Here is the input.
Amino acid sequence: MSVTVRVPAKVNVQLAVGAARPDGFHDLANVFLAVGLYDEVTATPAGELTVTCEGPGAGQVPLDRTNLAARAAIALAARHGIEPDVHLHIAKDIPVAGGMAGGSADAAGALLACDALWGTDASREELLDICAELGSDVPFSLVGGAALGTGRGEQLRVLDVGGEFHWVFAVADGGLSTPAVYREFDRLNAHTDVPEPVASQRLLDALAKGDVDGLASLLPDSNGLQPAALSLFPELTDTLAAGRAAGALAALVSGSGPTTAFLTGDAESAHTVAEGLLASGTCRAARVAASPAPGATVVS
Ligand code: C5P
Here is the structure.
C-alpha cells in the first residue's frame, strides 16, 4: 500500500519584510496565494528512510536526510515513537529553488502522506506545528488557498479569495538561495530604518473581490525581496520587461526568486504571455497556472 499527496506551489502577492531579528529571521507580512502547479509525494513502506525524485530540476534535489520531505517524515515518526521507515518518491513539477515553495510543498506532502500511511492520525494543530518547525512556508503548503502569514511567515490567517487569478511563471536559468536573498536584503537596507511589515488592506480587498486590475496595480511594489533578488540576478529585469511587453497586467519576482510571476486578465492571455516570454529568450520555461489552489490533498 502507498499514499500519494498532491501539494501546490505558491506566489506571494505581498511580501513585506521587516528588519532582521536577533535570531536572523525577518518578521513578515506575507500574503500567500496557492497556484495550480503541483508536486506529488508518494509514501511507501520500506526497510529504511529513502528518497527518490523525478521531474524538471530533480538532479538538484538532495536525496539524503537533509531533504525537507525526509525531515518531515523523521519529525512525525519521532513524535509518535516509531521509526521513519518509508520510501518517499517526489514527482516534481514546481520549479526547484525558484521561490515558489517547492521544498516546502514536498515537506507538507510527505507529512500528510506518512500520517495516512502510518495511521498516526495527527490533529491539524500537530501537523501545522511540525510544518512550522520545518520551515516558514511549510504551514501554508499544507493549508493552500490564500493566507496572511505573520511572524516569520508561519502564523497563518486564512484569507477570502473572490475569484480566479491567471498567472504565468517564468522559470529562470539557475536558482537563488533564500538565505542569500535575505542577506542581500539586509545589506541593501543596512543604513535604512526598515518599517514594521504590514499587510495592505487594499490588496486583501482586491483578493477578496477577485479584482484582477486592483491586484495588478499593487503587485509592482508588493515584494520587499524583489530589489535583493534583482541585485543578485540582474537578468530578471529583462524577463519582467518581456512579460509586460507580452501583455501581462503586472510582473513581479516570486518570493525570493528567481522565478518571475505575471498576472494576466484570463486563461487565454496567460497563454499569449507565456508564448511571448518564451520567444523573448529571457527564461528557460514559462508555465501557466490559476489560483487559488487547494492545499495538500491525499489523491490515492
Ligand atoms: O524558514 P525557512 O527554512 O524556509 O527559511 C530559509 C531561510 O530564509 C532562513 O534561514 C532565513 O535565512 C531566511 N528567512 C528569513 N526570514 C523569514 C523567513 C526566512 O530571514 N521570515
Residues 3-159 form a domain with the Ribosomal Protein S5; domain 2 fold (CATH 3.30.230.10). Residues 14 and 175 are 21 Å apart (CA to CA). Residues 102-118 form the longest helix (17 residues).
